[in-house]
Design goal:
Radius of gyration: 22 Å
Number of strands: 14
Strand content: 15-25%
Number of helices: 10
Structural class: alpha/beta
CATH architecture of the largest domain: Alpha-Beta Complex
Distance between the termini: 43 Å
């Protein structure tokens, strides 16, 4: 079966764009180990990234990929634009990277290396640096990550498909919530619906937990049973061709406390303010301030959050943010927003002077403003 995720023309242009930045920074090669960045340049999509993969991107000539020898068939089936260097499990990937640099005449060149990588351990990094000790090493983190923030039309379509699956999973999760339901049941229905709607495995979650654990930002189902009066936190991400689309809702079981409807209306106004402020040329800080103005209008002047959303893109576990960094819509940020960027936007009011409620959506910045990609699930008060 054919599984060409990206046309060769798109991969070629990404490599051209990467090399243009490398040239501006005076780099003769870039050593890449972030799985999302390797996927972006080559299309390599598998679980084998748990063992460090290293892609050497020279300023000229073909790329080279060093990883475990047992991945040869996967690489040959998926990667058409990089040479394969497979190491035995008794060998070091670092030695193969050093060998590639020597073979390419780069062992004393000016080289960038991604220091901000979850999978290049300090040991591997130190072995590479020591093995090519004559090179001028600089931090190459962020070069490809920045390119990935703006999506092509194809990437935008992949994100829309991921968002449709997230909506399906969230609707199924809400439908499964009732007095006596366990979080196992909710998770099962959510995953079933999401997968049948076309989702692959997401970078995170889904996160399903009672609001007694609301502050546990990254925990999920564990066997809790819900009863009337409880509230269920849902944060669910769909994925298609590794493009992530998260969303979230808060659901009350049986009945909601007095004031919950007003909180839901406040969260909806906050989300609308975020979407209205998401415009090409605006800054991330301006978007946060638009959301904060809504909070202030409700008397929550002292309520602050670290962000009202963050960018999402290609994502491998354990993240749907696209690596270890979070690029946020945060207070004071001067990052200029561009068409093709995608955000997990949050309008979150919890542990405040109003009743808890929150919503979040995947929102894409298009030429005429923000497009909410997860709009099928109601943002209004959810009571099951």
């Amino acid at each position: 079966m054919e599984h060409d995720v990206f046309p060769q023309t798109e991969l070629d242009q990404r490599l051209v764009n990467t090399r243009q930045i490398m040239q501006k920074r005076g780099l003769d090669a870039l050593v890449v180990s972030v799985p999302e960045n390797i996927y972006y340049l080559t299309g390599l999509d598998h679980w084998g990234f748990f063992a460090c993969h290293v892609l050497v991107v020279p300023l000229q000539g073909s790329m080279a990929l060093a990883c475990r020898a047992m991945e040869r068939i996967t690489v040959e089936n998926q990667v058409k634009n990089a040479e394969f260097y497979g190491h035995a499990d008794t060998e070091e990937v670092a030695d193969y990277v050093v060998g590639i640099l020597q073979d390419r005449g780069l062992s004393s060149a000016r080289l960038g290396i991604e220091k901000r990588s979850l999978f290049m351990t300090p040991r591997i990094y130190e072995m590479i640096i020591a093995g090519a000790g004559a090179a001028d090493w600089v931090d190459g983190s962020g070069i490809i990550d920045e390119l990935r923030l703006v999506k092509s039309p194809l990437e935008q379509e992949y994100t829309r498909q991921a968002a449709a699956a997230a909506d399906a999973g969230t609707l199924a999760a809400i439908e499964a919530i009732h007095d006596g339901a366990s979080d196992y049941q909710i998770a099962a229905e959510c995953n079933r619906a999401m997968i049948l709607a076309g989702s692959e495995y997401p970078g995170f979650g889904p996160f399903i937990r009672p609001t007694t654990r609301l502050g546990e930002e990254h925990t999920t189902w564990r066997g809790d049973v819900f009863h009337n009066g409880d509230a269920v936190f849902l944060e669910i991400g769909g994925a298609y061709r590794k493009y992530q689309a998260p969303m979230g809702r808060l659901v009350y079981v049986g009945s909601a406390p007095r004031g919950a409807e007003a909180s839901a209306e406040l969260a909806t106004r906050g989300m609308q303010a975020i979407c209205d402020a998401l415009q090409p040329g605006a800054t991330a800080g301006q978007v946060y301030q638009a959301w904060k103005d809504v909070a202030d209008s409700a008397g929550l002047v002292d309520y602050h959050r670290h962000h009202c959303g963050y960018m999402v893109s290609i994502g491998f576990p354990p993240s749907w943010t696209g690596g270890s960094m979070v690029t946020s819509l945060q207070p004071g940020s001067t990052r200029v927003l561009k068409t093709g960027m995608t955000f997990h936007a949050h309008s979150w009011f919890t542990n405040t002077d109003v009743v808890d409620y929150f919503i979040s959506n995947t929102v894409m910045l298009v030429d005429n403003g923000a497009e909410n990609l997860t709009s099928l699930t109601p943002q209004t008060l959810n009571v099951r």
